[in-house]
Write a structure and sequence with these properties.
The protein is mainly beta. Helix content is 6%, strand content 44%. The protein has a single domain, classed as Thrombin, subunit H, CATH 2.40.10.10. It contains 1 helix and 12 strands. The longest helix has 10 residues.
Amino acid sequence: MADLATGRIEPFDSKSISVYPTFKDPKKELFTGTSLCKLGFPFHNIDATFNEDKNSFQIAPGVLPMPRFPLEGIHTRVAIFFDEKSKRNAKFIETSSPGLRGQSGGPIFDIHGNIWGLQSRTSHFALGFKPKVKHGNKETEENQFLNVGLGTHVEEIVHFLTDKKIKFNLST
């Protein structure tokens, strides 16, 4: 439901990173209508294999650099789903734009760069009308849908990071 995972980069040179992500403080209200952006790697296949001898993943030559793709939207609402695995409610942030295949796990952030969630999936809501469309000589009805993005809510992320004793930055 709201599965999160961590990894460790080894060797890691902290001098190669000058900015770390800042998460939206979940104690502050997330206003409906706030402009948000998703960032990910759609339209690009990433071929990777696991090298057991080195205990590491290997990315195929020519994969890097991967093109990033931003997609804008707004915060529409918070969605709560019951997670059968953990037997608890999981909180998601909903955005007015769908997540594209390849954006899952990518950040959903505001104009200040604060992360509000991590893209998880896309939901489809039937709009209740079916215009008739002609394809060649055949007329068919096409269902119309609104596609929205769902991302793991920052409250879930902060809880996960705190539980795993991973340091992180919160917005002020």
